[in-house]
Amino acid sequence: CYSMEEIPFILDTSSAVYMSYLFNACNSLKKIPEGVSTNSATQAVGLFRGCYLIEEIPDLDTSNVTSFYEFFEGCYNLKSCPNLDVSSSTNFREMFLICRNLEEIPDLNSSLGTDFENMFSGCRNLKKAPIVDISSADEVNGMFNDCRSIEEFNANDYDFSNPFNFNGMFRYCF
Asked: How far is 170 from 58, CA to CA, in rounded Å?
């Protein structure tokens, strides 16, 4: 779907368990098709990866998704992020990588998360760091790399006692 601006049919995914890379590299897609549902999905790796022109994602039931790896990676024009139930996930690596226009991301209940590498890396317009539970994390390297516009970050909202890899966590920030 490299050059498609819209998908001209209703896409019923309500029973889909595996949705990884469903819209990967839909570079010209401007709107998520009607009927897309993630309520049964457990695997949704890279679901919207490379959807450069999408500005908004509708509310999605992501309560069963176990990995948000590359979920929104490369959604350059994404302006807002819906509230997401990420409580079943362990992997948040590169979830919002280079989402340049995101200014705010809702707080995330990520208590099972172990991998947060480059989660927000390249989110250059992010103004406020969302509260993310990293208490079970191993990897937080590059987590806020190149988040040049962060004006609000409260370290007290984070438990830094468990992660062992902090390389470049705040490189090119503040």
From this structure: 30
